[in-house]
Specification:
Elements: E1 6-11, H1 19-30, E2 36-43, H2 51-56, E3 60-64, H3 70-84, E4 88-91
Parallel strand pairs: 1-2, 1-4, 2-3
Length: 92
């Protein structure tokens, strides 16, 4: 008892009201979050209308630089991956 859920990095792009966001959120609402949790990575400038719901379900949202700032993007992603030790990364 008491084992932590596995955290999956969900690599989104612009996280707004799009179809991919809706599908992933539907999965997230219906999975067993005691076993699996999602952390969402969204690019700067995203509106992230799901942020409050994600956090209420136990997930986290990380805002990272846009790809147009590739070095900053890579540095931040590497830092967050190392800090959170993700075993699974799902890119959209």
């Amino acid at each position: 008892m008491g084992s932590k859920p596995i955290r999956i990095a969900q690599m989104m792009t612009d996280m707004n009201f799009g179809g991919v966001e809706m599908v992933v959120m539907n999965y997230y609402r219906n999975i067993d979050r005691t076993k699996v949790q999602f952390d969402f990575f969204a690019l700067e400038g995203s509106t992230i209308p799901q942020k409050e719901e994600i956090e209420s379900l136990g997930g986290r949202v990380f805002v990272v630089p846009k790809y147009t700032h590739l070095k900053k993007y890579e540095k931040e992603i590497q830092r967050l991956f190392k800090e959170n030790n993700y075993k699974i990364v799902h890119s959209h």
